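Lab notebook page, bench 4
Experiment: in silico fold of construct C2
Operator: M.H.
Input chain length: 628 residues
Purpose: comparison with the prior construct
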Amino acid sequence: MKWLYPHWLRNQMIRNKIIAIYIPLTIVPLLVLGFASNRIYSDSIVDKTISNVSDNSSLIITRINGILANAESCANILTINLNRVIEDKRNGEISSERNLQLSTLITNQLSFALLVFRDVESAAFIDNNGNIYATSTNIETSLPPDEVLQTPIIRAIEPTSGQNLWFPMQRRSYLTINDADPVLSVGKRISNIYTGQELGRLVLNIKETTLSSIFGKIGTDEQGSFMLTDRSGTIVSTSDKTKLLKQIDDPNLRNWVQSEKDESTIGRFQSGKQLVISSEMEKFGWKLISMEPYSKLTENSRKITMLIAIIGLFCFLFTLMGAGILNSLIARPIVLLTKNMKLVKEGNLSLRLPVRSNDELGLLASGFNTMIARINQLLDNVRFEQKKKREYELALIQSQIKPHFLYNTLDVIYTLAEFGRVKDVQRTTKSLADYYRIVLSKGREAIPLQDELQGLRDYLGIQRIRYADVFDYQIDVQPDVMACTVLKLTLQPLAENAIYHGLKTKGTFGHLWVTGGKVGDYLELRVRDDGAGIPPDRLKQLLGPGGLQEEGGSKAVSVAGNTGSSFGLRSVDSRIKLFFGDDYGLIINSEPGVGTEIIVRLPLVAGSMPSDPASIHNEIRSTREGVE
Protein backbone atom coordinates (compact mmCIF):
# COMPACT_ATOMS: atom_id res chain seq x y z
CA MET A 1 0.00 0.00 0.00
CA LYS A 2 3.04 2.30 -0.03
CA TRP A 3 2.21 3.44 -3.55
CA LEU A 4 -1.05 4.88 -2.17
CA TYR A 5 0.94 6.97 0.29
CA PRO A 6 4.18 8.06 -1.46
CA HIS A 7 7.18 9.37 0.37
CA TRP A 8 6.82 12.95 -0.88
CA LEU A 9 3.32 13.13 0.61
CA ARG A 10 4.51 12.11 4.05
CA ASN A 11 6.55 15.30 4.42
CA GLN A 12 3.74 17.64 3.37
CA MET A 13 1.59 19.72 5.68
CA ILE A 14 -1.71 18.17 6.77
CA ARG A 15 -3.78 20.65 4.75
CA ASN A 16 -1.74 19.74 1.65
CA LYS A 17 -2.34 16.05 2.33
CA ILE A 18 -6.10 16.65 2.59
CA ILE A 19 -6.13 18.55 -0.70
CA ALA A 20 -3.83 16.00 -2.38
CA ILE A 21 -6.22 13.18 -1.47
CA TYR A 22 -9.54 14.97 -2.00
CA ILE A 23 -8.78 16.46 -5.42
CA PRO A 24 -7.92 13.15 -7.18
CA LEU A 25 -11.02 11.53 -5.65
CA THR A 26 -13.13 14.24 -7.31
CA ILE A 27 -11.27 15.14 -10.48
CA VAL A 28 -10.07 11.73 -11.69
CA PRO A 29 -13.58 10.18 -11.97
CA LEU A 30 -14.80 13.29 -13.80
CA LEU A 31 -11.86 13.17 -16.18
CA VAL A 32 -12.47 9.48 -16.86
CA LEU A 33 -16.18 10.15 -17.33
CA GLY A 34 -15.51 13.09 -19.66
CA PHE A 35 -12.97 11.22 -21.75
CA ALA A 36 -15.05 8.04 -21.97
CA SER A 37 -18.30 9.84 -22.80
CA ASN A 38 -16.57 12.02 -25.39
CA ARG A 39 -14.92 8.98 -26.95
CA ILE A 40 -18.06 6.85 -26.99
CA TYR A 41 -20.29 9.65 -28.26
CA SER A 42 -17.78 10.69 -30.94
CA ASP A 43 -17.35 7.11 -32.15
CA SER A 44 -21.12 6.68 -32.20
CA ILE A 45 -21.61 9.87 -34.23
CA VAL A 46 -18.85 8.89 -36.65
CA ASP A 47 -20.29 5.39 -37.12
CA LYS A 48 -23.77 6.82 -37.63
CA THR A 49 -22.47 9.38 -40.11
CA ILE A 50 -20.55 6.72 -42.03
CA SER A 51 -23.72 4.63 -42.22
CA ASN A 52 -25.86 7.59 -43.35
CA VAL A 53 -23.32 8.81 -45.88
CA SER A 54 -22.88 5.28 -47.22
CA ASP A 55 -26.65 5.06 -47.71
CA ASN A 56 -26.70 8.47 -49.37
CA SER A 57 -23.76 7.47 -51.54
CA SER A 58 -25.62 4.34 -52.63
CA LEU A 59 -28.63 6.48 -53.55
CA ILE A 60 -26.46 8.94 -55.46
CA ILE A 61 -24.66 6.16 -57.31
CA THR A 62 -28.03 4.57 -58.09
CA ARG A 63 -29.32 7.88 -59.46
CA ILE A 64 -26.18 8.44 -61.53
CA ASN A 65 -26.31 4.88 -62.86
CA GLY A 66 -29.97 5.51 -63.69
CA ILE A 67 -29.02 8.64 -65.66
CA LEU A 68 -26.34 6.72 -67.53
CA ALA A 69 -28.73 3.84 -68.16
CA ASN A 70 -31.35 6.28 -69.48
CA ALA A 71 -28.78 7.76 -71.82
CA GLU A 72 -27.94 4.31 -73.13
CA SER A 73 -31.69 3.50 -73.49
CA CYS A 74 -32.14 6.76 -75.33
CA ALA A 75 -29.32 5.81 -77.68
CA ASN A 76 -30.82 2.37 -78.27
CA ILE A 77 -34.30 3.74 -78.96
CA LEU A 78 -32.88 6.38 -81.32
CA THR A 79 -31.04 3.62 -83.17
CA ILE A 80 -34.37 1.94 -83.97
CA ASN A 81 -36.24 5.15 -84.71
CA LEU A 82 -33.51 6.56 -86.93
CA ASN A 83 -33.34 3.25 -88.83
CA ARG A 84 -37.04 3.48 -89.57
CA VAL A 85 -37.00 7.14 -90.58
CA ILE A 86 -33.94 6.86 -92.78
CA GLU A 87 -35.04 3.62 -94.44
CA ASP A 88 -38.56 4.93 -95.08
CA LYS A 89 -37.17 8.06 -96.61
CA ARG A 90 -34.78 6.14 -98.80
CA ASN A 91 -37.61 3.88 -100.00
CA GLY A 92 -39.67 6.91 -100.94
CA GLU A 93 -36.91 8.90 -102.56
CA ILE A 94 -34.51 7.66 -105.18
CA SER A 95 -32.13 10.60 -104.74
CA SER A 96 -29.61 10.27 -101.91
CA GLU A 97 -29.35 13.97 -101.35
CA ARG A 98 -30.38 15.31 -98.04
CA ASN A 99 -33.61 17.16 -98.17
CA LEU A 100 -35.53 19.24 -95.75
CA GLN A 101 -38.04 16.54 -94.92
CA LEU A 102 -35.36 14.03 -93.83
CA SER A 103 -33.65 16.65 -91.73
CA THR A 104 -36.90 17.52 -90.04
CA LEU A 105 -37.73 13.89 -89.33
CA ILE A 106 -34.30 13.15 -87.81
CA THR A 107 -34.37 16.31 -85.71
CA ASN A 108 -37.87 15.49 -84.50
CA GLN A 109 -36.77 12.02 -83.44
CA LEU A 110 -33.83 13.48 -81.50
CA SER A 111 -35.99 16.12 -79.81
CA PHE A 112 -38.69 13.61 -78.97
CA ALA A 113 -36.11 11.34 -77.33
CA LEU A 114 -34.87 14.26 -75.18
CA LEU A 115 -38.43 14.91 -74.04
CA VAL A 116 -38.65 11.34 -72.81
CA PHE A 117 -35.10 11.17 -71.39
CA ARG A 118 -34.72 14.56 -69.73
CA ASP A 119 -31.32 13.77 -68.23
CA VAL A 120 -29.81 13.98 -71.75
CA GLU A 121 -28.97 17.62 -72.45
CA SER A 122 -28.39 17.38 -76.23
CA ALA A 123 -28.16 14.89 -79.06
CA ALA A 124 -26.57 14.93 -82.50
CA PHE A 125 -26.68 12.55 -85.47
CA ILE A 126 -23.85 12.76 -88.03
CA ASP A 127 -24.40 10.99 -91.35
CA ASN A 128 -21.72 9.55 -93.58
CA ASN A 129 -21.28 12.87 -95.36
CA GLY A 130 -20.57 14.79 -92.16
CA ASN A 131 -23.96 16.43 -92.02
CA ILE A 132 -25.10 17.15 -88.47
CA TYR A 133 -28.69 16.73 -87.29
CA ALA A 134 -28.97 18.07 -83.74
CA THR A 135 -31.38 19.26 -81.11
CA SER A 136 -29.66 22.64 -81.03
CA THR A 137 -28.44 24.92 -83.80
CA ASN A 138 -25.28 25.55 -81.78
CA ILE A 139 -24.29 21.95 -82.29
CA GLU A 140 -25.02 22.08 -85.99
CA THR A 141 -22.89 25.15 -86.64
CA SER A 142 -20.03 24.38 -84.24
CA LEU A 143 -17.87 22.71 -86.95
CA PRO A 144 -17.89 22.44 -90.79
CA PRO A 145 -19.17 19.07 -92.07
CA ASP A 146 -15.80 17.99 -93.45
CA GLU A 147 -14.13 18.45 -90.02
CA VAL A 148 -16.76 16.71 -87.99
CA LEU A 149 -15.78 13.25 -89.26
CA GLN A 150 -12.17 13.90 -88.09
CA THR A 151 -13.01 14.72 -84.47
CA PRO A 152 -11.70 12.29 -81.82
CA ILE A 153 -15.19 11.22 -80.77
CA ILE A 154 -16.36 10.34 -84.31
CA ARG A 155 -13.09 8.56 -85.04
CA ALA A 156 -13.43 6.57 -81.78
CA ILE A 157 -16.98 5.53 -82.76
CA GLU A 158 -16.01 4.34 -86.25
CA PRO A 159 -14.44 0.98 -85.33
CA THR A 160 -17.32 -0.02 -83.03
CA SER A 161 -20.07 -2.38 -84.10
CA GLY A 162 -23.00 -0.57 -82.55
CA GLN A 163 -22.33 -0.82 -78.80
CA ASN A 164 -22.58 2.25 -76.59
CA LEU A 165 -19.23 3.98 -76.14
CA TRP A 166 -18.80 6.38 -73.16
CA PHE A 167 -16.41 9.30 -73.26
CA PRO A 168 -15.01 10.94 -70.09
CA MET A 169 -16.27 14.19 -68.65
CA GLN A 170 -14.70 16.98 -70.67
CA ARG A 171 -15.04 20.44 -72.12
CA ARG A 172 -14.94 20.56 -75.96
CA SER A 173 -15.79 22.97 -78.72
CA TYR A 174 -17.77 20.62 -80.92
CA LEU A 175 -20.98 18.60 -80.65
CA THR A 176 -21.92 20.50 -77.46
CA ILE A 177 -24.24 23.42 -76.77
CA ASN A 178 -21.74 25.39 -74.67
CA ASP A 179 -18.02 24.69 -74.84
CA ALA A 180 -17.58 26.05 -71.26
CA ASP A 181 -19.85 23.41 -69.70
CA PRO A 182 -18.31 19.98 -69.09
CA VAL A 183 -20.36 17.13 -70.51
CA LEU A 184 -20.37 13.36 -70.25
CA SER A 185 -20.99 11.86 -73.73
CA VAL A 186 -22.07 8.49 -75.01
CA GLY A 187 -21.49 7.62 -78.68
CA LYS A 188 -23.00 4.92 -80.86
CA ARG A 189 -22.61 3.80 -84.46
CA ILE A 190 -26.00 3.64 -86.22
CA SER A 191 -26.23 0.83 -88.77
CA ASN A 192 -29.05 -0.68 -90.79
CA ILE A 193 -30.48 -3.36 -88.57
CA TYR A 194 -31.17 -5.59 -91.57
CA THR A 195 -28.19 -5.07 -93.85
CA GLY A 196 -25.60 -3.77 -91.40
CA GLN A 197 -24.90 -0.79 -93.63
CA GLU A 198 -23.58 2.23 -91.67
CA LEU A 199 -26.08 5.06 -91.49
CA GLY A 200 -24.25 7.50 -89.26
CA ARG A 201 -23.06 8.23 -85.72
CA LEU A 202 -25.11 9.24 -82.70
CA VAL A 203 -23.71 11.40 -79.85
CA LEU A 204 -25.67 12.10 -76.64
CA ASN A 205 -24.45 14.62 -74.05
CA ILE A 206 -25.22 14.66 -70.33
CA LYS A 207 -24.39 17.95 -68.65
CA GLU A 208 -22.15 17.78 -65.56
CA THR A 209 -24.65 19.82 -63.52
CA THR A 210 -27.16 17.01 -64.04
CA LEU A 211 -24.89 14.78 -61.94
CA SER A 212 -23.83 17.37 -59.34
CA SER A 213 -27.44 18.45 -58.77
CA ILE A 214 -28.08 15.01 -57.26
CA PHE A 215 -25.59 15.81 -54.47
CA GLY A 216 -27.75 18.64 -53.17
CA LYS A 217 -30.95 16.61 -53.33
CA ILE A 218 -29.64 13.55 -51.53
CA GLY A 219 -26.40 14.76 -49.99
CA THR A 220 -25.32 15.55 -46.46
CA ASP A 221 -25.88 18.63 -44.35
CA GLU A 222 -24.76 22.09 -45.32
CA GLN A 223 -21.26 21.52 -44.00
CA GLY A 224 -20.60 18.31 -45.99
CA SER A 225 -19.77 17.83 -49.65
CA PHE A 226 -19.74 15.18 -52.40
CA MET A 227 -17.57 14.89 -55.45
CA LEU A 228 -16.91 12.36 -58.20
CA THR A 229 -13.30 11.58 -59.09
CA ASP A 230 -11.63 9.26 -61.53
CA ARG A 231 -8.80 6.86 -60.69
CA SER A 232 -6.12 9.52 -61.25
CA GLY A 233 -7.65 11.84 -58.66
CA THR A 234 -9.21 14.26 -61.17
CA ILE A 235 -12.54 15.72 -60.05
CA VAL A 236 -15.25 14.70 -62.53
CA SER A 237 -18.26 16.26 -60.85
CA THR A 238 -18.63 18.57 -57.87
CA SER A 239 -20.73 21.45 -56.63
CA ASP A 240 -17.61 23.65 -56.54
CA LYS A 241 -17.15 24.53 -60.24
CA THR A 242 -13.69 26.05 -59.62
CA LYS A 243 -12.32 22.57 -58.92
CA LEU A 244 -14.05 20.80 -61.81
CA LEU A 245 -11.79 18.68 -64.09
CA LYS A 246 -8.76 19.49 -61.89
CA GLN A 247 -6.59 17.30 -59.76
CA ILE A 248 -7.48 17.20 -56.05
CA ASP A 249 -5.29 19.93 -54.61
CA ASP A 250 -4.57 18.15 -51.31
CA PRO A 251 -1.85 15.55 -52.02
CA ASN A 252 -2.78 13.42 -49.00
CA LEU A 253 -6.42 13.27 -50.07
CA ARG A 254 -5.38 12.59 -53.67
CA ASN A 255 -3.17 9.67 -52.64
CA TRP A 256 -5.94 8.28 -50.48
CA VAL A 257 -8.49 8.55 -53.35
CA GLN A 258 -6.13 6.77 -55.71
CA SER A 259 -6.20 3.68 -53.52
CA GLU A 260 -8.37 0.80 -54.70
CA LYS A 261 -10.44 0.39 -51.54
CA ASP A 262 -13.89 1.52 -50.52
CA GLU A 263 -13.28 2.81 -47.03
CA SER A 264 -13.59 5.70 -44.61
CA THR A 265 -10.94 7.61 -42.73
CA ILE A 266 -10.52 10.55 -40.37
CA GLY A 267 -7.61 12.80 -41.14
CA ARG A 268 -6.42 16.32 -41.85
CA PHE A 269 -7.43 17.09 -45.42
CA GLN A 270 -7.83 20.51 -47.01
CA SER A 271 -6.67 22.42 -43.93
CA GLY A 272 -9.01 20.73 -41.48
CA LYS A 273 -9.89 17.49 -39.80
CA GLN A 274 -12.35 15.65 -42.05
CA LEU A 275 -14.31 12.41 -42.13
CA VAL A 276 -13.81 11.11 -45.69
CA ILE A 277 -15.85 8.22 -47.14
CA SER A 278 -15.21 6.63 -50.53
CA SER A 279 -17.67 4.57 -52.66
CA GLU A 280 -16.70 2.86 -55.92
CA MET A 281 -18.58 3.23 -59.24
CA GLU A 282 -17.36 0.21 -61.17
CA LYS A 283 -18.87 1.15 -64.53
CA PHE A 284 -16.52 4.09 -65.07
CA GLY A 285 -13.90 3.46 -62.38
CA TRP A 286 -15.11 6.56 -60.58
CA LYS A 287 -15.22 7.16 -56.86
CA LEU A 288 -17.87 9.08 -55.02
CA ILE A 289 -16.10 10.96 -52.23
CA SER A 290 -18.00 12.38 -49.28
CA MET A 291 -16.32 14.82 -46.88
CA GLU A 292 -17.73 15.80 -43.50
CA PRO A 293 -16.00 18.31 -41.16
CA TYR A 294 -15.08 16.38 -38.02
CA SER A 295 -15.64 19.44 -35.85
CA LYS A 296 -19.24 19.60 -37.02
CA LEU A 297 -19.80 15.93 -36.25
CA THR A 298 -18.35 16.21 -32.73
CA GLU A 299 -19.95 19.56 -31.91
CA ASN A 300 -22.43 18.02 -29.49
CA SER A 301 -19.69 15.85 -28.03
CA ARG A 302 -17.64 18.94 -27.27
CA LYS A 303 -20.68 20.50 -25.62
CA ILE A 304 -21.01 17.44 -23.39
CA THR A 305 -17.29 17.58 -22.60
CA MET A 306 -17.56 21.28 -21.79
CA LEU A 307 -20.52 20.57 -19.51
CA ILE A 308 -18.53 17.88 -17.70
CA ALA A 309 -15.58 20.28 -17.43
CA ILE A 310 -17.83 22.93 -15.87
CA ILE A 311 -19.25 20.37 -13.46
CA GLY A 312 -15.68 19.30 -12.69
CA LEU A 313 -14.71 22.91 -11.98
CA PHE A 314 -17.59 23.31 -9.54
CA CYS A 315 -16.68 19.98 -7.93
CA PHE A 316 -13.09 21.18 -7.66
CA LEU A 317 -14.25 24.38 -5.95
CA PHE A 318 -16.47 22.39 -3.57
CA THR A 319 -13.51 20.11 -2.90
CA LEU A 320 -11.35 23.10 -2.01
CA MET A 321 -14.13 24.40 0.24
CA GLY A 322 -14.42 21.01 1.95
CA ALA A 323 -10.66 20.81 2.33
CA GLY A 324 -10.70 24.33 3.77
CA ILE A 325 -13.35 23.36 6.32
CA LEU A 326 -11.37 20.27 7.33
CA ASN A 327 -8.25 22.40 7.44
CA SER A 328 -9.96 24.85 9.79
CA LEU A 329 -11.40 22.12 12.03
CA ILE A 330 -8.50 19.65 12.03
CA ALA A 331 -5.38 20.79 10.22
CA ARG A 332 -5.14 24.35 11.55
CA PRO A 333 -5.13 23.36 15.26
CA ILE A 334 -2.52 20.70 14.49
CA VAL A 335 -0.42 23.20 12.51
CA LEU A 336 -0.73 25.68 15.39
CA LEU A 337 0.41 22.98 17.78
CA THR A 338 3.33 22.17 15.48
CA LYS A 339 4.40 25.82 15.30
CA ASN A 340 4.23 26.13 19.08
CA MET A 341 6.21 22.92 19.48
CA LYS A 342 8.87 24.39 17.17
CA LEU A 343 8.97 27.55 19.28
CA VAL A 344 9.24 25.42 22.41
CA LYS A 345 12.10 23.55 20.76
CA GLU A 346 13.81 26.91 20.20
CA GLY A 347 13.42 27.75 23.90
CA ASN A 348 10.17 29.73 24.14
CA LEU A 349 8.27 28.21 27.07
CA SER A 350 5.75 31.01 27.59
CA LEU A 351 3.28 29.70 25.00
CA ARG A 352 -0.25 28.50 25.63
CA LEU A 353 -2.71 26.93 23.19
CA PRO A 354 -6.38 27.97 23.19
CA VAL A 355 -8.72 25.07 24.03
CA ARG A 356 -11.88 25.55 21.95
CA SER A 357 -13.33 22.04 21.85
CA ASN A 358 -13.66 18.87 23.86
CA ASP A 359 -12.60 16.52 21.07
CA GLU A 360 -9.21 14.89 20.57
CA LEU A 361 -7.66 18.18 19.42
CA GLY A 362 -8.93 19.94 22.54
CA LEU A 363 -7.45 17.20 24.74
CA LEU A 364 -4.19 17.51 22.82
CA ALA A 365 -4.05 21.30 23.34
CA SER A 366 -4.89 20.91 27.03
CA GLY A 367 -2.17 18.30 27.42
CA PHE A 368 0.30 20.61 25.67
CA ASN A 369 -0.47 23.47 28.08
CA THR A 370 -0.09 21.14 31.07
CA MET A 371 3.22 19.87 29.74
CA ILE A 372 4.58 23.42 29.24
CA ALA A 373 3.52 24.36 32.77
CA ARG A 374 5.32 21.30 34.19
CA ILE A 375 8.43 22.07 32.13
CA ASN A 376 8.50 25.68 33.37
CA GLN A 377 8.19 24.48 36.94
CA LEU A 378 11.06 22.04 36.46
CA LEU A 379 13.18 24.70 34.77
CA ASP A 380 12.59 27.10 37.66
CA ASN A 381 13.84 24.43 40.03
CA VAL A 382 16.88 23.78 37.83
CA ARG A 383 17.66 27.50 37.56
CA PHE A 384 17.53 27.89 41.32
CA GLU A 385 19.86 24.95 41.79
CA GLN A 386 22.19 26.17 39.02
CA LYS A 387 22.27 29.63 40.57
CA LYS A 388 23.38 28.20 43.89
CA LYS A 389 25.91 25.98 42.15
CA ARG A 390 27.36 28.89 40.17
CA GLU A 391 27.62 30.98 43.33
CA TYR A 392 29.52 28.19 45.06
CA GLU A 393 31.81 27.67 42.05
CA LEU A 394 32.51 31.39 41.70
CA ALA A 395 33.29 31.74 45.39
CA LEU A 396 35.68 28.80 45.14
CA ILE A 397 37.48 30.23 42.08
CA GLN A 398 37.75 33.66 43.67
CA SER A 399 39.18 32.14 46.81
CA GLN A 400 41.82 30.47 44.62
CA ILE A 401 42.68 33.56 42.54
CA LYS A 402 43.12 36.12 45.32
CA PRO A 403 45.52 34.10 47.46
CA HIS A 404 47.36 33.07 44.31
CA PHE A 405 48.23 36.68 43.41
CA LEU A 406 48.82 37.66 47.03
CA TYR A 407 51.39 34.92 47.48
CA ASN A 408 53.25 35.99 44.33
CA THR A 409 53.27 39.67 45.33
CA LEU A 410 54.43 39.01 48.87
CA ASP A 411 57.19 36.92 47.39
CA VAL A 412 58.26 39.98 45.33
CA ILE A 413 58.24 42.26 48.40
CA TYR A 414 60.24 39.70 50.35
CA THR A 415 62.80 39.47 47.61
CA LEU A 416 63.14 43.26 47.34
CA ALA A 417 63.51 43.61 51.08
CA GLU A 418 66.14 40.90 51.04
CA PHE A 419 68.13 42.96 48.53
CA GLY A 420 67.66 46.10 50.60
CA ARG A 421 65.70 47.94 47.91
CA VAL A 422 63.65 50.02 50.32
CA LYS A 423 62.26 52.40 47.70
CA ASP A 424 61.13 49.50 45.59
CA VAL A 425 59.58 47.88 48.65
CA GLN A 426 57.65 51.08 49.32
CA ARG A 427 56.44 51.38 45.74
CA THR A 428 55.55 47.69 45.61
CA THR A 429 53.67 47.88 48.89
CA LYS A 430 51.81 50.98 47.70
CA SER A 431 50.96 49.30 44.39
CA LEU A 432 49.82 46.17 46.25
CA ALA A 433 47.53 48.27 48.45
CA ASP A 434 46.09 50.09 45.45
CA TYR A 435 45.72 46.80 43.61
CA TYR A 436 43.75 45.19 46.44
CA ARG A 437 41.63 48.28 46.80
CA ILE A 438 40.49 47.69 43.23
CA VAL A 439 40.26 43.93 43.72
CA LEU A 440 38.04 44.23 46.73
CA SER A 441 35.82 46.90 45.08
CA LYS A 442 33.37 46.80 47.96
CA GLY A 443 32.48 43.21 47.13
CA ARG A 444 31.58 43.85 43.48
CA GLU A 445 32.76 41.26 40.97
CA ALA A 446 32.16 43.37 37.85
CA ILE A 447 34.04 46.68 37.54
CA PRO A 448 34.68 49.22 34.74
CA LEU A 449 37.48 48.40 32.35
CA GLN A 450 39.43 51.48 33.38
CA ASP A 451 39.60 50.20 36.97
CA GLU A 452 40.72 46.78 35.74
CA LEU A 453 43.48 48.47 33.69
CA GLN A 454 44.56 50.51 36.69
CA GLY A 455 44.88 47.32 38.74
CA LEU A 456 46.86 45.78 35.85
CA ARG A 457 49.22 48.76 35.86
CA ASP A 458 49.77 48.34 39.62
CA TYR A 459 50.49 44.65 39.10
CA LEU A 460 52.86 45.22 36.17
CA GLY A 461 54.55 48.01 38.11
CA ILE A 462 55.28 45.50 40.89
CA GLN A 463 56.56 42.89 38.42
CA ARG A 464 58.61 45.48 36.54
CA ILE A 465 60.46 46.31 39.75
CA ARG A 466 61.36 42.66 40.20
CA TYR A 467 62.07 41.77 36.56
CA ALA A 468 63.49 45.01 35.20
CA ASP A 469 66.01 43.05 33.11
CA VAL A 470 63.40 40.59 31.82
CA PHE A 471 60.66 42.63 30.12
CA ASP A 472 58.88 45.91 29.65
CA TYR A 473 55.23 46.49 28.92
CA GLN A 474 52.82 48.76 27.02
CA ILE A 475 49.08 49.28 27.57
CA ASP A 476 47.03 50.71 24.69
CA VAL A 477 43.22 50.44 24.97
CA GLN A 478 40.69 52.52 23.00
CA PRO A 479 39.14 55.25 25.18
CA ASP A 480 35.57 54.54 24.01
CA VAL A 481 35.52 51.15 25.77
CA MET A 482 36.87 52.29 29.14
CA ALA A 483 33.37 52.35 30.63
CA CYS A 484 32.63 48.77 29.58
CA THR A 485 32.03 46.29 32.40
CA VAL A 486 34.54 43.46 32.94
CA LEU A 487 35.22 41.01 35.75
CA LYS A 488 37.97 42.09 38.06
CA LEU A 489 41.16 40.07 37.83
CA THR A 490 40.57 39.33 34.15
CA LEU A 491 43.81 40.70 32.72
CA GLN A 492 46.18 40.22 35.68
CA PRO A 493 46.29 36.39 35.53
CA LEU A 494 46.95 36.56 31.80
CA ALA A 495 49.80 39.04 32.25
CA GLU A 496 51.18 36.87 35.07
CA ASN A 497 51.20 33.78 32.81
CA ALA A 498 52.88 35.80 30.04
CA ILE A 499 55.67 36.91 32.40
CA TYR A 500 56.34 33.62 34.21
CA HIS A 501 55.79 31.15 31.36
CA GLY A 502 56.70 33.20 28.30
CA LEU A 503 59.10 36.06 28.97
CA LYS A 504 61.14 34.55 31.83
CA THR A 505 61.80 31.35 29.92
CA LYS A 506 62.74 33.21 26.73
CA GLY A 507 66.33 33.93 27.88
CA THR A 508 66.42 37.44 26.37
CA PHE A 509 64.68 40.72 27.05
CA GLY A 510 60.99 40.64 26.08
CA HIS A 511 57.97 42.80 25.62
CA LEU A 512 54.39 42.63 26.80
CA TRP A 513 51.52 44.41 25.04
CA VAL A 514 48.01 44.89 26.35
CA THR A 515 45.55 46.28 23.78
CA GLY A 516 41.78 46.45 23.49
CA GLY A 517 38.84 47.85 21.61
CA LYS A 518 35.46 47.16 20.03
CA VAL A 519 35.36 44.38 17.41
CA GLY A 520 31.89 43.91 15.93
CA ASP A 521 29.48 43.23 18.79
CA TYR A 522 32.24 42.25 21.19
CA LEU A 523 34.81 43.86 23.46
CA GLU A 524 38.18 42.23 22.76
CA LEU A 525 41.21 42.61 25.03
CA ARG A 526 44.53 41.16 23.86
CA VAL A 527 47.52 40.23 26.01
CA ARG A 528 50.49 39.51 23.71
CA ASP A 529 54.11 38.71 24.45
CA ASP A 530 57.13 37.84 22.35
CA GLY A 531 58.26 35.15 24.76
CA ALA A 532 59.05 31.48 24.32
CA GLY A 533 55.54 30.53 23.21
CA ILE A 534 53.64 27.35 24.02
CA PRO A 535 55.07 24.01 22.87
CA PRO A 536 53.02 22.32 20.15
CA ASP A 537 52.00 19.36 22.31
CA ARG A 538 50.87 21.66 25.10
CA LEU A 539 49.10 23.99 22.67
CA LYS A 540 47.35 20.98 21.10
CA GLN A 541 46.22 19.94 24.57
CA LEU A 542 44.89 23.43 25.27
CA LEU A 543 43.14 23.65 21.90
CA GLY A 544 41.73 20.12 22.04
CA PRO A 545 38.57 18.87 23.74
CA GLY A 546 38.22 20.46 27.14
CA GLY A 547 40.75 23.19 26.27
CA LEU A 548 40.70 26.68 24.82
CA GLN A 549 40.17 27.29 21.13
CA GLU A 550 42.07 29.06 18.39
CA GLU A 551 41.05 32.45 17.05
CA GLY A 552 38.18 32.12 14.53
CA GLY A 553 36.42 29.26 16.38
CA SER A 554 32.82 29.35 17.45
CA LYS A 555 33.46 29.82 21.17
CA ALA A 556 36.14 29.41 23.87
CA VAL A 557 35.97 26.59 26.39
CA SER A 558 37.66 26.10 29.72
CA VAL A 559 41.22 24.85 30.04
CA ALA A 560 41.38 21.32 31.33
CA GLY A 561 43.60 20.74 34.28
CA ASN A 562 44.55 22.70 37.32
CA THR A 563 48.33 22.89 37.23
CA GLY A 564 51.02 25.08 35.73
CA SER A 565 50.22 27.87 33.33
CA SER A 566 46.74 26.52 32.62
CA PHE A 567 45.40 27.40 36.05
CA GLY A 568 45.40 31.19 35.40
CA LEU A 569 43.83 30.72 31.99
CA ARG A 570 41.28 28.24 33.32
CA SER A 571 40.23 30.50 36.18
CA VAL A 572 39.74 33.57 33.97
CA ASP A 573 37.91 31.58 31.29
CA SER A 574 35.64 29.88 33.84
CA ARG A 575 34.72 33.11 35.57
CA ILE A 576 33.87 34.82 32.27
CA LYS A 577 31.61 31.94 31.28
CA LEU A 578 29.90 31.84 34.65
CA PHE A 579 29.07 35.52 34.40
CA PHE A 580 28.51 36.17 30.69
CA GLY A 581 27.79 32.78 29.12
CA ASP A 582 29.48 30.29 26.85
CA ASP A 583 29.66 32.74 23.92
CA TYR A 584 32.47 34.55 25.71
CA GLY A 585 35.86 33.60 27.09
CA LEU A 586 39.48 33.23 26.01
CA ILE A 587 41.05 32.47 22.62
CA ILE A 588 44.70 31.48 22.42
CA ASN A 589 47.21 31.82 19.57
CA SER A 590 50.81 30.81 20.07
CA GLU A 591 53.93 29.91 18.07
CA PRO A 592 57.07 28.55 19.74
CA GLY A 593 59.94 31.06 19.64
CA VAL A 594 57.64 33.86 18.45
CA GLY A 595 55.25 34.45 21.32
CA THR A 596 51.71 34.03 22.56
CA GLU A 597 48.55 36.10 22.25
CA ILE A 598 45.52 35.65 24.50
CA ILE A 599 42.28 37.25 23.32
CA VAL A 600 39.61 38.01 25.90
CA ARG A 601 36.17 38.23 24.28
CA LEU A 602 33.56 40.04 26.41
CA PRO A 603 30.13 41.61 25.81
CA LEU A 604 29.81 45.33 25.18
CA VAL A 605 28.01 46.10 28.45
CA ALA A 606 28.45 49.33 30.42
CA GLY A 607 27.39 50.13 33.98
CA SER A 608 26.89 47.97 37.03
CA MET A 609 26.05 44.29 36.62
CA PRO A 610 23.65 42.18 38.68
CA SER A 611 25.06 39.26 40.64
CA ASP A 612 22.60 36.70 39.20
CA PRO A 613 24.15 35.07 36.09
CA ALA A 614 20.70 34.55 34.50
CA SER A 615 19.96 38.27 34.89
CA ILE A 616 23.38 39.07 33.46
CA HIS A 617 22.66 36.93 30.38
CA ASN A 618 19.28 38.65 29.84
CA GLU A 619 20.90 42.08 30.12
CA ILE A 620 23.61 41.07 27.63
CA ARG A 621 20.97 39.78 25.20
CA SER A 622 18.95 43.00 25.49
CA THR A 623 22.08 45.11 24.95
CA ARG A 624 23.06 43.17 21.81
CA GLU A 625 19.53 43.38 20.36
CA GLY A 626 19.60 47.13 20.95
CA VAL A 627 22.91 47.42 19.14
CA GLU A 628 21.61 45.43 16.18
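Observations: Confidence is low (pLDDT under 50) at residues 552-564. The chain is about 50% helix and 20% strand.
Next step: discuss at group meeting.
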